[in-house]
Design goal:
Layout (H helix, E strand, L loop, with lengths): L8 H28 L3 E3 L2 E3 L3 H49 L1 E8 L4 E4 L5 E3 L11 E6 L3 E6 L7 E5 L4 E4 L3 E9 L5 E9 L4
Antiparallel strand pairs: 1-2, 3-4, 3-11, 4-5, 6-7, 7-8, 9-10, 10-11
Length: 200
C-alpha cells in the first residue's frame, strides 16, 4: 500500500489542482448544457442536458424533410400531368377548330328577313342552304339571344341560341354547330358550320 506521506506535496497540490479544474470545467459545462438545453459532445457522443430533446427535434426535422420531399415530388408529378393535359387540350381545340367547315353567316332582321353577311343572298322567312340539312327561321330575339325555328322533330324544332353558348345539332349526315356573334354595328350574326359525324 502506498504511503501518501511519501508523495511530494507539490505533486499532491498539482493533482488536486488538476482535479479541481476538471471538476470545475465539467460542472460549468453541465450548467451551460442545462441552461441552454443543449448537450455537449465528446468524441461524437452527446452528454449533458437536452440530448433527448435534441434527438426528438432531429427526428421531427427529419420527418418534416421527408414530408417536404414527398410534397415536392407530388407537385412535380402534378405539374407534369397539368402540362401534358394542357398540351392535349390545346391540341384538341386546334383539331376541333380545323374540323369545322363554314356554311353560312346569317343576319336575321326584326321583320323576318335575313341576309348573308357578304350581302350576296337575301330572303324572307326560312333560311336554307344547299350545303346544309338544317333550316332556320328567326322567331324571337333579345339583346343576347335569339330563338330559332328549325326543321328538326319536336321538341327540338325550336332552339334558343345565346351569344356565348354555341349549340351542336347532330343530323343524318353531318353534325352542325350554331354560334352567334356581333358585327361592327352590333347586329347578331348566326354562323352555321358542319363536320362529319364520325369526327366527334
Amino acid at each position: 500500500m502506498t504511503d501518501l506521506s511519501k508523495i511530494p506535496t507539490k505533486t499532491i497540490n498539482t493533482l488536486a489542482f488538476v482535479i479541481c479544474i476538471i471538476t470545475f470545467v465539467t460542472l460549468g459545462t453541465l450548467i451551460l448544457s442545462f441552461q441552454s438545453d443543449r448537450p455537449f459532445k465528446i468524441y461524437g457522443k452527446e452528454f449533458g442536458f437536452g440530448a433527448e430533446e435534441l434527438q426528438k427535434k432531429s427526428n421531427e426535422l427529419m420527418d418534416i424533410k421527408n414530408q417536404l420531399s414527398t410534397v415536392k415530388n407530388e407537385n412535380l408529378y402534378l405539374k407534369d400531368a397539368y402540362e401534358k393535359l394542357s398540351t392535349e387540350l390545346q391540341s384538341r381545340k386546334k383539331q376541333e377548330a380545323a374540323l369545322w367547315f363554314p356554311i353560312d353567316d346569317i343576319q336575321f332582321e326584326n321583320d323576318g328577313q335575313y341576309k348573308t353577311t357578304d350581302g350576296k343572298r337575301q330572303g324572307l322567312g326560312k333560311w336554307s342552304n344547299s350545303d346544309s340539312e338544317l333550316t332556320l327561321r328567326s322567331v324571337a330575339a333579345t339583346r343576347e339571344e335569339i330563338t330559332l325555328e328549325t326543321n328538326l322533330q319536336p321538341p327540338s324544332n325550336k332552339i334558343r341560341l345565346h351569344i356565348s353558348q354555341p349549340i351542336l345539332i347532330p343530323m343524318n349526315k353531318w353534325e352542325y354547330r350554331l354560334s352567334m356573334t356581333y358585327d361592327a354595328s352590333f347586329q347578331k350574326i348566326i354562323r352555321v358550320e358542319r363536320r362529319n359525324k364520325s369526327m366527334n
